[in-house]
Amino acid sequence: MAESEDAACRHDASRRRVLAAGAGMMLWLTLKPAAAAPAEMEAAIRSFTGGAKIQPGKVRLDVATLVDNGNAVPVAVSVDSPMTAAEHVAAIAIFNERNPLPDVARFTLGPRAGRAAVSTRMRLATSQKLMAVARLSDGSYWSHTVDVVVTLAACIEGDS
Q: Are residues 49 and 9 in the same domain?
């Protein structure tokens, strides 16, 4: 009788190890951040620009370079433009390198906007590069890139 009880205990212990390993794997899959690759960010930017050349300058991406919590990061973008009918910002887009979706936000503007400035909050999955790209009425594209360090990551469930 003692021998069968010992076998049953070993079977239960083995079963518990298998269940614990399965639960651990499910937890890892659930909490593992889904991330866009830099190539996906480049593809999203190409989609916005139609493959046109992007020049650095005119755009200011205002975001903290050290973020304690990536769940609600304030981001502001402004563009140096007179915002007249002849010369204005037509669109602003924000892209990120490592969130599940690299295309964060797109804003459409026109001369009646008065100022070429937008702001929002975004989640950041981890430390990464952010880029703001502006399309001007003359068809030119301008950008600004910022590297952001995130100490407490967000987007761990595939959200952005």
A: no
